[in-house]
Structure formats: structure tokens, C-alpha cells
Amino acid sequence: MNVGPETIVYILEIVVGGLLVGIGVHFVPVGGAPAAMAQATGIGTGTVQLAAGCGLTGLLAAGLMMSVTDNLWPILATGAVGAMIMIDATMLTGSWIYAYAVGAPFASAKVNYDPITGFSQPPYVAPGTVGQGIPTVCFVSGTIGALMGGVGGAMIYYPLMLINGNPAMSAIFAIGIFFVNAVLASWNIQGTIEGFHDPKFKKWPTAFRSCLAASFILAIVAVLIIPIATSGGV
User: Could you tell me the residue range of the domain that residue 163 belongs to?
Assistant: First the structure.
């Protein structure tokens, strides 16, 4: 298989998509088990699960748009909107549970004042916790992360579809690339994160380097080796 400019563009698109996924994970408020017990801010599940849910929703939305047009921009926009709806709906539902079932106020323990609203946070942090609920800054940050994840998933899926034209195979490889980057970001976060205001967010350059290397290798496999295998040889 000849490696021309088009092939290089495909590889770059997948690499950029993987980077968006890895960095976007750092924006999503992940609370894990502590959040499920109202002892930390964010959504009560793991980083990888949230990233996968966001990415898969964006991927499905992008795939639907790609059945209508092969224009990259509406495909990326659809992937972003699909992922944002998924994360926002999850955060909103979690907020209802916090407010009306648990009775916990929304408060961040990472900052003294909410960067979005300017509201004071320490008076509302329950003793023995590191914050609770999904404060405004977490919601905004999560929406940004979902946008990046949705665009990243669509940008991975798009070149794969152009290469082999098989929606199932393209989706499988896109999901695989998505999971690899999500897991690398999860290891970098190591537990819970509130969003871009969390001190852990400053660790994103480490995830950037890891995701760059992993996405580049996976892009080469997806773009160069898969077409050879599906065609039965060189």
C-alpha cells in the first residue's frame, strides 16, 4: 500500500481524535465511588466508563450524520452535540439525586469560590467529604470535556470509514482507540477529578504525551495494516 498525502491526513486525524479524547477526559467531573456516597463532587462512576459513554454516544451520532453526508464539519458537530447531550443528561440526573434524594448542597472543595458563579464554596462542604454534588463549574467543565470527546470520537471514526467503508469495523476500531486513550487518561488522573479547576487537571501534559504515542501507533495499525488484511494481501 502506497503512503500518500491522503494516508498521512488519515493518520493525523486519528491522532488528533485520540488526543482530544485523552485531554477531554480531564474536563469531565468524575467522582467514582466517593461521589456515589455523596462524599465527592462529580458523577458516581469511573473515568473510563464516562469517557466510553460520551465517546460511544458521539460516535453513534457521527455515524448517523455520515450516512447523510461525508462533509467532515457537520459530522464533527453532530458527534460533539451527541456526546454533550449524554454527559449533560448524566450530570443533570445526578444533580437531581443529590438535591432531592440525598439532600446534599453542591460544593467544590478544590476552590474557595466557584470560577463560574463566584459563589463561596467552603461553607457548603459537608464535614468529612471533599465536596459533593455537581457545582456549576463542574457542569461547565463536563460539557467542554464531552465536546472534546465527541469531536475526538467522530474524528477517529471518519477516516476509518473512508478507508474501508465498513461501519461495523470502523466503529470497533474507533471504540478500541477511544478506550486506550480513556484508560491512559484514567491512570493519569488516578481517582476523582472535578474538572479544569481541579489541581489534578495540571497533569494533562503527561496524558497528552502518552495519548500521542498510543494514538500514533494505533493510527498506523488502523490506516496501513487493516486495509492490507481486508484486501487479502498487498
Answer: 5-224
